[in-house]
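Usage example:
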Amino acid sequence: MFAFVVRRILATIPVMGVVAFLVFSLLYLAPGDPAAIIAGDIATADDVARIRTVLGLDEPFHVRFGTWLWAVLHGDLGSSIFSNLPVSTLIGQRVEATVSLAITTLIFAVAVAVPLGVVAAWKAGSLIDRAVMVFAVFGFSVPVFVLGYLLIFGFSISLDWLPVQGFVSIREGFWPFLRQLILPTVALGTVYIALIARMTRAAMLDVLSQDYIRTADAKGLRADRVLIGHALRNAAVPIVTVIGIGVALLIGGVVVTESVFAIPGLGRMTVDAILRRDYPVIQGVILMFSFVYVIINLLVDLSYTLFDPRIRY
Amino acid sequence: MALTVFAPAPDAALANRRRPWWVRNLPIVLGGALLLAALLVALLAPWLGTIDPTALSPIRRLRPPSEQFWFGTDQLGRDLYSRVIYGARASLFVGFAVAVFAVLSGLFFGLVSGFNRIFDAVLMRVMDGLMSIPSVLLAIALMALTRASLGNVIVAIAVAEVPRVTRLVRSVVLGLREQPFIEAAIASGTSAPRILLRHVLPNTIAPLLVQATYICASAIITEAILSFIGAGLPPSIPTWGNIIADGRAVFQIRPQLILIPAAFLSVTVLAINLLGDGLRDALDPRLARQM
Amino acid sequence: MTIQGKRLLAACAVAAFGIAIGFGKPADAQQKVLRFIPHANLSSIDPITTTGYIVRNHGYLVYDTLFATDANFKIQPQMVDKWTTSPDKLRWEFTLRDGLKFHDGAPVRPADVIASVKRWSARDTFGQAMAATVDSYEAIGDKTFAIKLKKPFPLMLEALGKLSSNVPFIMPERIANTDPAQNITDATGSGPFRFVRSEWVPGQKAVYERFADYKPRSEPPSWAAGGKVVKIDRLEFRIIPDPAVASAALGAGEVDWYEQPPVDLLPTMARNKDIKIELIDPLGSMAMLRFNHLHPPFNNPAVRRAVMMAVNQNDYLQAIIGNKEYYKVCKSFFTCGTPMASDVGIENAAGDLNKAKQMLKESGYKGEKVVIISPTDIPTNHLQSLVTEDLLKKLGMNVELVATDWGSVLARRASKNPPDQGGWSIFHTWWVGPDVVNPALHAPLRGNGAASWPGWPTDATMEALREKWLVAPTPAEQVSIAKEMQARAYEMVPYVTTGQFQQPTAFRTSISGIIVSPVPFFWNVEKR
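Running the assembly step on the lines above writes:
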């Protein structure tokens, strides 16, 4: 088990190395010139050239990559070209909104999807089952920003029940915080409900057809105990896997959701940085997102042992 | 967003055994019909009562729906109906092209990597790296790297899908390698390309076909997201994503500028997803479990 | 990578901790806080390296200026108390007012002023013109400094009192010694507000506090001139890029002032009794179509003239603004409504498509490709580009619209390559009225070739006229030279004006005392 964990952690190093290289070379090749953007509308070519020199944008690829990687390994992600604020500070300023949205979405999705999936499997072939499956297909097909605008139109503009957009820190009270997050959570959560509900249903059906469940059932154990105590526990591995994949997708979905709902989070910051060619910020944030993704995959792998005693490493 | 994990609906087949084929395969029929309709709209766009979707007329900007402009006009006075109808062309084209591109490249890399260990070790690390970059961010970054054009959008979206296809093909190849008939073929000196063509390729077709439909659906959504963020197709090509992006600023006063293209987009994606589900169940019920 | 991981975990932990214990306190209820939605994100704090108007506005809060432009375009002293010019006009001597202090408590010294003027004049076009005549700077005692010139520079006060980007703001010497190509990181100034750097979250907010030690002048405020009396305690810039959210926030009273609401949303906003919509931007902005003069087809003045003949400003203004209340046709090369503007030559921009087709046919245009570069993230520029694309197609030109983001447009715009090799033929932008009000400031009108603003027209006649204007002794003579320049511009067509528009502003009725000016100022503003 310990050896497995170590091996698994070591395996993430080359992946992160590849990401670092990919991201850096991508930006190196990008045609947009941050020096021109800093210099602005009125600048002449000489101004731009001087700014390029000052920022070290004239150095060859391997020098720039080496300098950057060395700093990153020492915990220094560099500073924004525009604001001169350290990238880690910028991330720190934005992380609350993104993490909050990710957590509420995950809780919402799991809380809705797992019961739906269990009931659908239990009553397989029934009207409820069909309704869940139809909902699941719809959930996949409506893009998150479309759903976002539908929700804003319905609940904010027409009914005026919830704030249009924006984000309130939890420090300013739990209810104001939650109120702002309801619509984005529902918009972003729908696709995960679809995903997790389908997976739960499939895994449950698989388990329910096993002999030991039939035995438990035949012994006259109550349905809920069979379902939750035996079946759900054994169906947990694929469900956890899909939640892990869901978290990875969540990172992409957050970018769009933050744009629609004007949430000042990491996703918006990344898009802004890409459009402005703020290289250190783009590199830092993408590296961080990839790191989170790799860690989540690691946790998912490790969690298998918790849920399924048959899996041992 | 690529949704590669889809659950099977195993017992539906049992329950439906005695029903007519079109009821048993309702998803295929429904999805296929809707997709066919969308394709027809795209192909027949000029004959569906449309006018030039790019013709500007600032004088008649932001008109509400009327007999002349069925869905109203946008900020530049362009006819929304014509734009939405023509938008089907770009969106569907991007979807299909990404699916084909991603499947072919994934097939190539997967086959090679399944048969060459050194190449496999290197390629899989690169693919792991690519997969750990959120695909939307990767696509935005790639679009920022190049200029907005149809080809670039297709490549930018497809790059994020290639690793998933590669892994799928590779797992099929690795599974087959253990099979006696392949071992026999290798032992008897059959050349590698021949084995690939004869034995491996046919086994990948079914899962790839299913995978391609899902890629197609997610590519259409990703294209819309790119346009929405301002890193998509050039604005002179009407796509559903472009139209929605243009409508953002005036959403409060003219919600149809977003809601109508959004409805077309969602129904099309729904159709392709239904088709994908149906194909998966019909082609190989076991496959669904493996995925 | 593990260190990176630790950092991330630390960041998450800090965030979680913050969430858990709920640190941070809301602003004191007794404080008067003005919440303002600016037109753009404050992503940089250096008003000398950056020309963005948002950074200029930040500069006016944090810094003070030696001279300032008032509402009658007159230059008035601001930090300067009195000044003299030698009879041969080669030596200017300035004395600062009493009691000027930086936010760190240090007095403003001549050395600070000289370092600031030097840094500014290395970057700004007007400043560069001034620097070319400067022989040396000299500090005399605690409050006096002199500028010695090699040849007379009559526009000295106009340069030092420049209203818009880049403004010669006065910074402490240690900061002003920063390389003019590098951004400063310390926002210490001597202006009426202090920048609260610890609360600055780019893309979200920027915070300023009243600087209690600021000594305002006694005159009433007029544009950047006069007494800067601050009547609020705290000013918060809230960055809300989505117009729908921003107008909702104003309607709900979450913010007090929304700088640039889109004109399309005004009718909806006007229904709210608590919101006032006003034009505080008397000169408006001038939208323009800029040609690349280096490459075909627009290296041929006849082709440029044909396009100018075709331009119908109403189409552009409808597309970018859409409400006649906020725009007007303006065919002068100088901001309409100001002294240098005139009607000379406007018949050359009649908006006559048929005549334009004829002119294009006779121009020798051979179907060369026209590449328009357009930023989709700047609607005012992008919508203009779409109108131009449509117009040139109607003219029968071979057009390609390259739509990208503003960053890429700026980068590509700097390229002097042919349009099909990474260059360009046309881009659109706009200049605020005060920036194109006279030949001294007017960058897009210049004909100084490779050194000029992208587009690079070479026109010795125009440059000679500009030199003549800079030393013109009387306003009447200035006007007559400006007319000659406009006539020349209609011949050479450095660019085409596509209209003049005004940007209304919207604020809560609890706000009063807003100074009507091309730059939003925050002194004199009161909040009930």
